[in-house]
Amino acid sequence: MGVEVVVEGLTKSFGNQNIWRDVSLTLPPGEVSALLGPSGTGKSVFLKSLIGLLKPERGRCVINGVDIVTCSERTLYETRKLFGVLFQDGALFGSMNLFDNVAFPLREHTRKSETEIRRIVLEKLEMTGLTGADDKLPGEISGGMRKRAGLARALVLDPEIILVDEPDSGLDPVRTTYISQLFLDVNAQIDATFLIVTHNINLARTVPDNIGMLFRKELAMFGPREVLLTSDEPVVKQFLHGRMDGPIGMSEEKDGATLAAEKAMFAAGHGAGGVDDVTGVPPQMQPSPGLPERAGSRNRTDRVMQSLHTLPENAQHAIVESLSPEARRHYGVEGGDTHNYGAHAAISQGAGSPVD
Ligand SMILES: Nc1ncnc2c1ncn2[C@@H]1O[C@H](COP(=O)(O)OP(=O)(O)OP(=O)(O)O)[C@@H](O)[C@H]1O
């Protein structure tokens, strides 16, 4: 069962270089969230702060009642056991075969017998599609397999929170979709809370329940996927379309002069690159057939429907459109005008198990 991660007013600097400030968000238990943002905005620093590898100078990060920013080293050590982390390259030991890599946390952190370790390792290798690859060295397998092995290793201690740093790095679009499917399949099976840091627009549009974006040293937004995907904020639109035209520059944010010069260039007909057809809210990927329904997805629908009336209108429409006819009936949002959604949805709460 996943746990909630509550971040409040988190601020991180290195010396006098502030990376981000006043970041507040809640990762809802069992849901899949993604964090986007231009390169260098501190997404990896944020992940490392969540597991206490880096110490923010202000704010709180509360997990199961423990503030990992201020807790003792011993409590931090215990709380870290709730996490599974998948680093960009899988962070495997090059001289160990996949079996020993995946077994490593069990041998380090538990007193389990080798028989029990073998059972767990083979189960996680099967879960990540690596059955039969246990004797391979990391250097003998593809990047996609290395990432899946990294995920298998992240799963062996039965984590309740899984952090993933740029799962698409080095992968082609098809392999990126396969690993995305694997995240949703794992989420359906173990109900862990996920946070995925990514630049990949396809993944961001189709995988998470919630999306956030870091920009200009702040969390520009965080909320249900439909909010960001229907946003008119220039920085969000530019990011989703991968265009040069907008506030994000080549290596940092643009100053006014650069913006004006570029605007003139684009107005004179120079293409801004990127793609134009990244609009709307595509259907969210689902767990593979035969797997259980995601509890996180069901809970999210309930949660989002309760606060529907507080969301921008475009997001409200997208959320209602994504519901099945049964779910619309359940939440009392069959047609009609969005301003009434909140009231109807609130009345319908507790009326039995929702249908997604
Ligand atoms: N240990 C550290 N000491 C000093 N500065 C650091 C440290 N770790 C990260 N930084 C700085 O923090 C900033 C944010 O880095 P980070 O890697 O988190 O960005 P990111 O958003 O993950 O980027 P990318 O998308 O390119 O991976 C960078 O300027 C980086 O140099």
The main sheet comes to: 6 strands, mixed
Number of helices: 14
CATH structural class of the largest domain? Alpha Beta
Ligand inventory reads:
adenosine-5'-triphosphate
CATH 2nd-level architecture of the largest domain: 3-Layer(aba) Sandwich
Relative helix content: 25-40%
Number of individual domains? 3
The secondary structure category is alpha/beta
The unreliable regions are 343-356
Number of separate strands: 10
Strand order of the largest sheet: 6-7-8-3-9-10
Relevant CATH superfamily of the largest domain: P-loop containing nucleotide triphosphate hydrolases
Q: Per the principal axes of the C-alpha atoms, what is the gross shape?
A: globular
Distance, first to last CA: 20 Å
Please, what is the average pLDDT? 87
State the order of secondary-structure elements, H for helix, E for strand: EEEHEEHEHHHEHEHEEHHHHHHH
Instruction: Kindly estimate the percentage of residues that lie in beta strands according to DSSP.
Output: 15-25%
Instruction: Specify Rg, calculated over alpha carbons.
Output: 21 Å
> Remind me, CATH topology of the largest domain?
Rossmann fold
Keywords: ATP-binding, Nucleotide-binding, Transport
GO molecular function: ATP binding; ATP hydrolysis activity
Domain ABC transporter: 5-241
Pfam family, one: ABC_tran
Structural account:
With 356 residues, this protein is α/β, with parallel strands linked by helices. The protein has three domains: 5-226, P-loop containing nucleotide triphosphate hydrolases (Rossmann fold, 3-Layer(aba) Sandwich); 243-279, no CATH class; 295-348, no CATH class. It has 14 helices and ten strands. The protein has helices at residues 43-50, 73-80, 98-109, 114-127, 143-155, 173-190, 201-206, 225-229, 234-241, 256-267, 295-306, 313-322, 325-331, 341-348, and strands at residues 5-14, 17-27, 32-36, 58-63, 66-67, 83-86, 161-165, 193-197, 210-215, 218-224. It is globular, with a radius of gyration of 21 Å. It starts with a strand and ends in an 8-residue tail after the last helix. Mean pLDDT is 87; it is low at 343-356. Adenosine-5'-triphosphate (ATP) binds at residues 14, 19, 37, 39-45. InterPro entries: AAA+_ATPase (IPR003593), ABC_transporter-like_ATP-bd (IPR003439), ABC_transporter-like_CS (IPR017871), P-loop_NTPase (IPR027417). Keywords: ATP-binding, Nucleotide-binding, Transport.
